[in-house]
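Weekly structure sync, notes
Attendees: PL (lead), two postdocs, one rotation student
Agenda item 3: pending single-chain targets
PL asked that the sequence for the first pending target be pasted directly into the notes so everyone works from the same version. It is reproduced below exactly as submitted, 405 residues in total.
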Amino acid sequence: MKKQLLAVAVATTMSAVAFADISIRGDAHFEYSYKDVSDSSVFASQDGENRSRQRVRLHVTGKSGDTTIKVGLRNDGRTRVSGGANASDGARGTGSGAGNAGDSSSQLNVDYQYITTKIGALNIKAGDWWDTTGLGVARKGKADADRIEFSTKIGGWRAAVETGAESSSTVLSAKGKIGDFNVTFEHNTNVSLDGEEPTAITAEQADINDGYVGPNGLDAIHEGDYTDISIKGKIGAIGVAAEYFAGTNDTRDDAGLGDDADAALVHLWTKVGEVTWHAAWAQTDAGVAGITGSGNKFSPLGVSILATAPGGSGDVALGNFGDAEDSVWGIRADTKVAGMGLQVAVGNLEINDGSVTVDGVARDADDTFWDIIVTRPLGKGSNIRFSVGEWEDATSAGARISVKF
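Predicted structure, written out during the meeting:
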């Protein structure tokens, strides 16, 4: 009898655990950066600086049957020890650049939260999440807020429809394989601000999108639409990745600035001996950021001097690619030296159609760059990365310790 009671107690306990499936994982990094801009005309108004920043994230997953809820908790560098405000106001920053301008809070803030479930073959996802379109040349790590997505499998392809509770912006997408290539298609039928007034722009302000948050849950501040197609695979020993983002910015067009909002990427790679060689070219039109949100985390060739978001290169980066009429091309070599990863890249970067205004004076913004990254493993799930790069007579160097747990 006692054995039977014990067996029932154990079975009941195990059943309770099965129904309460909760897991927590996380990641964190500590970053130090130094910039020398004393000889740079583009960065003439900035001071060379030493900066440090840390970010901690916890990813909580709860599961019951076919339903899963995911919540991210995040702190972007301030603690009460360092004088961070004991409030969450401003913790998000703006748009996809979350954490860049909102690091004054000492609290853990909700980074994302969404629920997934299924009804037969229909999958449902609803809530707030970070999203990437294709390979990310126009939309990488961008906000999808108050959205709901329905998806299913059709003949080996994933087909999905995404919309918002208070938005007429509807996204249609399909993912699958054609031969040896992964293919992704996405079409936003209407980047609509739903009655909200689009951000007023002039010819001088047309390329300045930072500091605004779109009212449609997608961080867009202009009206328009886009279609994106991307492919990734191999032809023999050569890897091929390509993306074309065809966008239309109606708000800029109404202001007489043209509706161009396209972006493109071509990336090739192959291994020769112990070295993997990469060659890449990418460009964006001035109207892209208006319909996708600013603060893109995309860094062509993975160089450290681009992508200022905490999830990108952070404070080590000199600037962003894709917030204006930008283009970049270059080559990169990856290899290992004494157990450490070595990445060396050279190329040319042009931002804002080759000219930026600093203190009322037009400055050239079209120059060659070089970038070196050395990564040393520190054990399972952790590493330290050292980097140094230069563009337009500005030099940036940094170190980052990263860990996953």
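Discussion points:
- The chain is about 5% helix and 55% strand.
- Residues 2-19 form the longest helix (18 residues).
Action: rotation student to compare against the earlier draft before next sync.
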